[in-house]
Description:
Layout: E1 3-4, H1 12-27, H2 40-53, E2 64-65, E3 68-69, H3 71-83, H4 91-97, E4 99-101, E5 111-114, H5 122-130, E6 137-143, E7 146-151, E8 158-163, H6 167-172, E9 173-178, E10 189-199, E11 207-208, E12 219-233, E13 236-247, E14 252-263, E15 266-272, E16 274-277, E17 281-282, E18 292-296, E19 303-309, E20 311-315, E21 318-329, E22 331-333, H7 341-348, E23 349-360
Antiparallel strand pairs: 1-11, 2-3, 4-9, 5-6, 5-9, 6-7, 7-8, 10-12, 10-23, 12-13, 13-14, 14-15, 14-16, 15-19, 17-18, 18-22, 19-21, 20-21, 21-23
Helix pairs in contact: 2-3
Amino acid sequence: MGSIPRARRPSALLILAFALAGAGRAAAAPGELPLPTFAPAKTRDALIRAAEGLAGTPYLYGGENAAGLDCSGYLFLVFKSATGHTIPRTVAEQGRWVLPIPRRELVPGDLVFFDMSARPTAKAAATVAATARRVDHVGIYIGDNAFLHAASAGSRTGVVQASLADPAWAARFAFAGRALPASALSGAAIEWGLAASFEAEPSGAAAPTDGLALSLPGFKGVGLRVAGTLPLGRNFSVGIEGRAEWNSLLGVFRFPAAIFIGQNEGISIFAGPALTLGAPSLPSPDAEGEPRGYEAAAGWLASAGIRWTPVVYRSGATSIGLGAELRYDRYRPASGLPDDQYANRRACFSLSVGLRLRSIHY
Length: 362
């Protein structure tokens, strides 16, 4: 029987990375808030004008056009008219969709959510604040404590103006939500990451050919990452990152810096220079053999790769995600060494898996 060459056997880590990425994608909520706009003030003004233009429209349960509107249909129509985006249709979905913000941060164009089952008492108001996700009514904040909404009961029904200062509405207020940027810097984010890296291919002896063989790759090191990003669109941004890594395989500390571009939740690419401390050397497969020496290449493309970052949990402006990364670090064999492509791949290529914490400024 022959054997499968080491370089062609599938890596268990590679399979694990894609499995984690798939699990994260299934659990993630689509996209990020707020809705993209390059002119936040103009977009919010357009939203308010669209909301005010529907004042007096009669109430109609399930309505979502000028013939009649319910509260969530009112928001649905206003956002579609002012931004061109289709938002979730029901109050519950809209409440899960927006970014919750403190009431003191409300600006015109934000949303206000209510629990209409709450009684207008101070005790009920505290209960509502503690259970902000139980909402069944919504309106559009227009400033000075005023909001527009489609009322179904009371002295006036249909699209009317009301006040958060009114004790009845104050007691039923649940939380405020943001769906549009508040400033030009809205959507900027800070990311932190912690990951373990492994060899991109197995390093053990060849395996028999009777069936598909899996081989665990060798541990390569650990790294910390911090990055800042600016939005280019919904779920797409550009950023700068820096890392501190310990490469136990080569016995060096490495500090890459990179520019990256791509999806906030999905695929991105990165490349940049790196500072290496120490003399890189690859242990010989033979316990009695000499280590294979390397030199860390300088220049602006010392490190590059592709990253997959699905989100598995989101709370407001903060999300936690998984990360799977294939990276190439430029290491050149020391002068006088014979060519060994397998050893070079072990030194230069790595797979990383870990966690990412992302905090967005709105």
